[in-house]
Design a protein that fits this description.
Blueprint: E1 6-8, E2 11-13, E3 21-22, H1 28-33, E4 42-46, E5 54-61, H2 72-95, H3 102-105, H4 108-111, E6 119-126, H5 134-144, H6 146-151, E7 159-163, H7 164-169, E8 173-175
Parallel strand pairs: 5-6, 6-7
Antiparallel strand pairs: 1-2, 2-8, 3-4, 4-5
Helix pairs in contact: 2-5
């Protein structure tokens, strides 16, 4: 559990309110299962006044291949899909206390979540990417995550691809 700013892929994430960030990639839960399991960086609890909470599953990258550069682009999208899906699964499994380290790893706010009303966003942030390069990435990632978004009923806007500017706009990062 950390609310202090931390660096990832050349960006500074946070600070976040106490208990709102679960650094899943650094958790003991993940360390116990990490062999052959790729993982996104963190889960972020975002509460809004009259709405159910959002849980943002965040993966950060310093670059990405261009959409036309197969097979590297397809591999990149597949790796991101796996990381986001695995982090979603580990987050939910931890909230359900399915792992022995979950109780110690999870912030209290996550432990008290009502998973039935919580909304999820699967977020990829690419540092230094131009805004007009984002739509083809988002389309490819959305297609790749279609099974996950359908089986978990995440909704049409659950997959988001941002650059460093978008991350700052949404309060995810505190420095360029």
């Amino acid at each position: 559990m950390s609310t202090e700013p931390f660096d990832e892929s050349g960006m500074t994430f946070g600070p976040y309110d106490d208990g709102h960030c679960f650094l899943v990639e650094k958790s003991d839960t993940y360390k116990a299962i990490q062999e052959d399991v790729q993982m996104a960086e963190f889960l972020l609890l975002r509460k809004q006044q009259a709405s159910p909470p959002d849980i943002w599953v965040v993966e950060a990258k310093s670059s990405s291949p261009r959409p036309g550069s197969q097979p590297s682009f397809d591999k990149f999208i597949g790796d991101i899909r796996d990381k986001l899906t695995n982090a979603l699964s580990v987050g939910i499994a931890s909230i359900l206390n399915r792992h022995p380290n979950a109780a110690a790893d999870l912030p209290e706010l996550f432990k008290r979540l009502d998973l039935g009303t919580s909304r999820f966003r699967l977020v990829l942030i690419i540092n230094g990417h131009k805004k007009d390069w984002l739509p083809p990435l988002q389309d490819a990632l959305r297609r790749s995550l279609l099974v996950t978004t359908k089986t978990w009923a995440l909704g049409p806007n659950a997959v988001v691809v941002l650059n460093h500017e978008g991350a700052k706009h949404f309060g995810l990062t505190s420095a360029p």
